[in-house]
Amino acid sequence: MLSERRLEVLRAIVHDYVGTEEPVGSKALTERHHLGVSPATVRNDMAALEEEGFIAQPHTSAGRIPTDKGYRLFVDKLAGVKPMTAPERRAIQNFLDGAVDLDDVVGRTVRLLAQLTRQVAVVQYPSLTRSTVRHVELLSLAPARLMLVLITDTGRVEQRMIDCPAPFGETSLADLRARLNSRVAGRRFTDVPQLVQDLTESFDKDDQGTVATVLSTLLETLVEETEERLMIGGTANLTRFGHDFPLTIRPVLEALEEQVVLLKLLGEATDSGMTVKIGHENAHEGLSSTSVVSVGYGSGSEAVAKLGVVGPTRMDYPGTMGAVRAVARYVGQILAES
Amino acid sequence: MLSERRLEVLRAIVHDYVGTEEPVGSKALTERHHLGVSPATVRNDMAALEEEGFIAQPHTSAGRIPTDKGYRLFVDKLAGVKPMTAPERRAIQNFLDGAVDLDDVVGRTVRLLAQLTRQVAVVQYPSLTRSTVRHVELLSLAPARLMLVLITDTGRVEQRMIDCPAPFGETSLADLRARLNSRVAGRRFTDVPQLVQDLTESFDKDDQGTVATVLSTLLETLVEETEERLMIGGTANLTRFGHDFPLTIRPVLEALEEQVVLLKLLGEATDSGMTVKIGHENAHEGLSSTSVVSVGYGSGSEAVAKLGVVGPTRMDYPGTMGAVRAVARYVGQILAES
DNA sequence: GCTGGCACTCGCCGCGGGTGAGTGCCAGGG
DNA sequence: CCCTGGCACTCACCCGCGGCGAGTGCCAGC
């Protein structure tokens, strides 16, 4: 096991490297942090830390930089979450409070998070999986053409066009609308299939085809929309990545455009609490030099979606984690209110 | 006026520079293009072109590169639009045909355009300004809470929550819904304010407050949604920008995140036909080393929105213009069908 | 187990010469 | 009058070199 001081040395190395972006040597360390020991001692500690794989030297006779494993230890054992200051918290709230609809909430959240962390922000739209149906509406656009509108408790609205196999009267429509809503309103998405199972049979033979089409479209929408959408922002911050960056930045931009990749990325985060994925811990290889800090957020006690930031492994973990947590909390509040 | 051959020299310079990304000299030019004259002659022509500001040398005793003015002349006089090949056209159509809804159409268009041009693609959602109302729906969510859903002929759906000043009965609701639709369905957005002007008065005193609220929300939505949304993609292509790129890429990424900037950018394009903005011709200074090729597209004969690509001034203009035009054409078709 | 001392490594920086692509100019020829 | 070949000149780029200094590992001593 590593001694207390060696952990302290690791912490100091991470701190300095994050700040300066340059390999940090033993002398500089003792000067900037009052460790109470000489450079030579620190050198021994560094040798030990390197032996264990927590730090590495880019080339012989250079300072050390933390490895992914080193950051992992730092995040798990050495770093706390730096809480936001009161003014910062107020600013967050003010910024989010003006939002007028869901798109706006998500948009503001992305911008805010990108600005606070100076990194790339990713915000998932509130998931439909755990959501409930607020209302289902059916509109007749033409004799044999309907529009299905699905409204969720998170304020999301989805619509689908439906071409009916046969004309469908206004009374039948009103009937279907009423029955559908009495069954599914307020219920969870996952329960809907069961709830509407036998609805078709109770209609006139003439209308059964249309009813079946409507129902299957509804179920389809539920499934389709469980594949989440998301919004990203702050990509300009990628330019602060490092010196070597054409090589670094390209795969990251590519990964960010693959919504599937990002969703998986966020999806891997544990449901509650914050998740930090460091470097190669990320499944996607384009992101092997980035870290992802993510957390769930939600309107109630349950998380309905996730948000997070993507930045270089060399990032200010405590600060980033603090910002992510604070933003998630306030977004949750906003959603709960609306 | 510039002689025919000098224009040919300029064309050759643009062609080679776009291909190689390196200043092009007189000898190389005569070798690659059979101009029928010697390097010395070309040098004289080059001197003249430089005199007029169409080309420049990065430093003495280096080859020439085109200036913005040079590209402008090239685009206006020397370059045609390179039409897509038949297989390419088929691929475009196939790629777009599978789209299920408006978001999907726009999403696919962005990806397609980015891939075809290997540059950053920007697609504006079909504008509501020129659109007509297909249907307005009112749903009662709670005794004093309504939801307004607006459906446009381009398949876009917008919703707004409305808190009523007083409870509003189902019959009144149905009444309002019917009267509203009979007045505005099929009409242009711009005509709506006039059409609903006197609607409030025809209702019971008790309901007038709510009706007024609904109407003002509707008008608000029309106005708000005239501010367009857009989608961008292919940002990873920015890495192919050039060598010096931390400096170049950063302001571009920033500009791309400012939707307002992009909208203005596309907005400046003339209504019909293709617009090419080169380098400093772009109002936004972050984009002073990029060119924007944009064109309107629409479901009918009228353009309802715009799309385009953003790339380095050193781009393949004929090819890019061809791709942009082709994609716009097909998107228009798709929208017209749905 | 910490410390100071010491020899060593090696990336970074600035210097200097050689190379070659490219230029401008000029005199001569169709 | 315009094009051409020739010629001297410029200057960015490449490469090798040596000095510098931060940083290291090791070791003997307290």
Automatic annotation (TrEMBL), chains A, B:
Residues 34-62 form the HTH deoR-type domain. GO terms for molecular function: DNA binding; DNA-binding transcription factor activity. The keyword Flavoprotein does not apply. Transmembrane segments: none annotated. Keywords: Repressor, Stress response, Transcription, Transcription regulation. Residues 103-321 form the Heat-inducible transcription repressor HrcA C-terminal domain. The keyword Transcription regulation applies. One of its GO terms (biological process) is negative regulation of DNA-templated transcription. PANTHER family: HEAT-INDUCIBLE TRANSCRIPTION REPRESSOR HRCA. NCBIfam families: hrcA. Belongs to the HrcA family. Negative regulator of class I heat shock genes (grpE-dnaK-dnaJ and groELS operons). Prevents heat-shock induction of these operons. This is Heat-inducible transcription repressor HrcA. The lineage of its organism: Bacteria, Bacillati, Actinomycetota, Actinomycetes, Kitasatosporales. The gene is hrcA.
